[in-house]
């Protein structure tokens, strides 16, 4: 994958997935606006070696390639369905295999989906601290959507799409800033 690159990673463990569709919608939007290469992955893509892995080296080759793409991304979009008030266990386990310093300073756009409004703060109370641990650059606008915001698996709620566009604008500021830094250094 050529750089700069935007990579989506969704914690859904079943398909079809609203979360994956939501993450990919945002990935495509940022990629199209800024000419980035893009990929979106989910737990299904990582495959069965994830559950048994105690260390990144225990992952099979395709799973290690996905881990490497996530680490190498210029911008990350992460999302998870809410399971029992938090991200899915395998979403956390994937990030548990990443070196604590590997995501330092990386722009990360936070998203989540849930069955209802009750757990909307998963993005602030679960996802933001996780990426705070990594000292990643989590964007100020995090986006949560509920099942009723989707029609046939596609995000269709105007207020949520508007909030997602706000997060995409923030990602754009960082993408432009990063290429500006690169140009200045050349
Ligand atoms: C095991 C399980 C636990 C869930 N726990 C919650 C929950 O605590 N809060 C919530 O709002 N939705 C909960 N849900 C609903 C899902 O978060 C919701 O349907 C989500 O949008 C599914 O995303 P997906 O289509 O990407 O799988 C749960 C669903 C499952 C299967």
TrEMBL record:
User: Organism's domain of life?
Assistant: Bacteria
Tell me which positions the record assigns to the signal sequence. none
Q: Does the keyword Transport apply?
A: no
The record's Gene3D superfamilies line, in alphabetical order, gives:
3.40.50.360
Q: Which residues form the NADPH-dependent FMN reductase-like domain?
A: 6-148
Any single Pfam family the record assigns to this protein: FMN_red
Sorted alphabetically, the keyword list is: Flavoprotein, FMN, Oxidoreductase
Q: Name one GO molecular function term.
A: oxidoreductase activity
Regarding protein family, the annotation reads: Belongs to the SsuE family.
The protein's matches in PANTHER family, at most eight in alphabetical order, are given as: FMN REDUCTASE (NADPH)
List the NCBIfam families.
FMN_reduc_MsuE
Q: What is this protein called?
A: NADPH-dependent FMN reductase
Q: Which organism is it from?
A: Rhizobium loti (Mesorhizobium loti)
């Amino acid at each position: 994958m050529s750089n700069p690159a935007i990579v989506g990673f969704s914690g859904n463990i079943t398909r079809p997935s609203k979360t994956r569709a939501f993450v990919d919608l945002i990935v495509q939007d940022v990629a199209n606006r800024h000419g980035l290469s893009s990929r979106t992955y989910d737990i299904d893509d990582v495959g069965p070696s994830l559950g048994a892995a105690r260390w990144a080296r225990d992952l099979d080759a395709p799973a290690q390639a996905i881990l490497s793409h996530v680490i190498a991304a210029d911008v990350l979009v992460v999302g998870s369905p809410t399971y029992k008030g938090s991200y899915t266990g395998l979403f956390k386990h994937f990030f548990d295999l990443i070196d604590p310093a590997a995501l330092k300073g990386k722009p990360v756009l936070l998203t989540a989906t849930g069955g209802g409004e009750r757990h909307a703060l998963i993005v602030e109370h679960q996802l933001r601290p996780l990426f705070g641990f990594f000292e990643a650059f989590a964007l100020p606008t995090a986006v949560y959507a509920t099942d009723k915001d989707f029609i046939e698996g596609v995000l269709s709620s105007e207020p949520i799409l508007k909030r997602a566009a706000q997060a995409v604008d923030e990602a754009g500021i960082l993408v432009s800033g990063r290429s500006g830094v690169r140009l200045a250094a050349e």
